[in-house]
Amino acid sequence: MYRGVNRGLQRRSKKLEYHHVSIDEKAIGKGHEYITVLSDEQTGVVIGAVQGRKKVSVDKLCSEWLTKSQRSKVQTVCTDMWDAFIYGAKTYFKNAKHCHDHFHIIGYLNKAVEKVRKREVKKYEELKGTKYIFLKDHDKLTEEQRVKFEIINKINYEVAKAWQVKENFRDIQFKQSENKAFSLFMRWRRHAITCNIPEITAVVEMFDRHMKGIINAIECGSTNARAERINGAIQELKTIGRGYANPQNFINAILFFHGDLDVFPR
Length: 266
Known about the structure:
Number of strands: 5
Number of helices: 12
CATH superfamily of the largest domain: Ribonuclease H-like superfamily/Ribonuclease H
Helix content: 55-70%
Low-confidence stretches: none
Mean pLDDT: 91
Largest sheet: 5 strands, mixed
Strand content: 5-15%
Number of domains: 2
Radius of gyration: 21 Å
Distance between the termini: 15 Å
CATH topology of the largest domain: Nucleotidyltransferase, domain 5
Shape: globular
């Protein structure tokens, strides 16, 4: 596999153009070890991967896996709100719009909803066992879950209000003009703040600090959907391999299976 990946990387053209890229992380094991993955949003191909997720890792990923010419042709860079990834997007892709994609934004809101539920479950017994009712798409709820949700919603617990804030963001249609994107975000923000739920307010404050990236995402319609599918495929590799003690072996396997490389001898 190492020889195959080396062959494939030598054969990969430096003239390939990537217009929409994502920077994301993947845990190596159960601890705090990570690899950072650069992928092509349009094809789902892994462009490169490095050990770690700090600035030094992002420097290596962006400078070594793409040439300066390739980086200059990138139009959008999708990341979550991790500082090192934001740094990489702004430092190495100066011609691109930096976006915080829909998937990660909803992820932050989902975590806030679950925090509200955990707080309220201490007072209200009926909220026990309802975690996935507020996380699942509502068209995928069982009839029993649907009935339980309607009861909770009518009682108007804070968790139901927090869930509605999250759903309101999900309803925002991406691919808008810049002015419309700003207007949609501010309308959502006003409603979120008026709910006066501490966990939601904390997320809104975080979004305020990263507003430009969120509005860029709404404007460009940028999403990490393919990157998240790649994440799933990488997780499958980790499961099949029963974990990787050596991070470089893990990176090598990712590139072998998902780097779209010409790996075979001629």
